[in-house]
Amino acid sequence: xxxxxxxxxxLLAEIQNEFEEITVVDEKGYILxxxxxxxxDIFPFPEVIxxxxxxxxxxxxxCKVKEEKTYLLKFKRVRDFILILKSDVSLNxxxxxxxxxxxxxxxxxxxxxxxxxxxxxxxxxxxGNCEEREILEEVLEKLRELNSIVGGIENLFKYSHLxxxxxxxxxxxxxxxxxxxxxxxxxGIKLIYKLVDVSLPADKVLYSQMVRNLLSxxxxxxxxxxxxxxxxxxxxxxxxxxxxxxxxxxPKIFDRFVKGEESSGQGVGLSIVREIVKxxxxxxxxxxxxxxxxxxxxxxxxxxxxx
Length: 307
Hints:
Blueprint (H helix, E strand, L loop, with lengths): L8 H8 L4 E5 L13 H4 L3 H13 L1 E7 L3 E9 L2 E8 L1 H38 L5 H24 L7 E5 H18 L3 E6 L3 E5 H17 L5 E6 L3 E6 L28 H11 L3 E7 L3 E7 L8
Parallel strand pairs: 6-8
Antiparallel strand pairs: 1-4, 2-3, 3-4, 5-7, 8-9, 9-11, 10-11
Enzyme class: transferase
Catalytic activity: ATP + protein L-histidine = ADP + protein N-phospho-L-histidine
Pfam families: HATPase_c, HisKA
């Protein structure tokens, strides 16, 4: 008969198929089956100690460590024990580096003609005799906005180029709301917002893009009713009374190229939101009911990234 604190070996066998190495420790960090060795004796990294403390509190955690290769360590509490599941993510990291290079190249190729178009329009507005001046000014504004978006997407894949500084999120949030207000009004949607001054370390362009994607998404999928934006010291919340997300789609809603049947987009907006949230060390969750609406909440982490 199995003792209450004994770990089920069948569970270990099942997990072993997915991970190349499993370490089991008790709540004090001692490795089972070793001669009083502790976890940090074989993984002497501060990230491991932090993750171990986190799993004791929350039941799950993870971190990456670099030895000869890059490994992902997933910590999971199972009754009185902690499982540390080790997997080699070196190839994934190599792929991410290739992806960063491709995105950087594509962004450059797009930004070059954009900059040229912006320059030509600015010249026409300054020195040309244009009867449709308002139209040109609107086109120029949209081109500048597109240029910022392309730069923001490029920044997603360049940690070293992220422009993190202490910024007030309120005016940036309000600017995006004002930008999309007409779109909401044209659909008869009531746009409600409640904002407070919140200063956090963040990248201005990326934060603006995150709010724009969430709010634009809410307006696009709401045919009547309201869209609410709430900014507090702890979170940004975007709520709508639109069509909602199906139960089948909800778990995959942040994946790339995932979209509903009625969506006319490319299915990348929410995946960009997730990346922006992740790069700021924030968290995002979503609640939705079909026919009732959807709520996205971005939870800020005090301190976030280092400035």
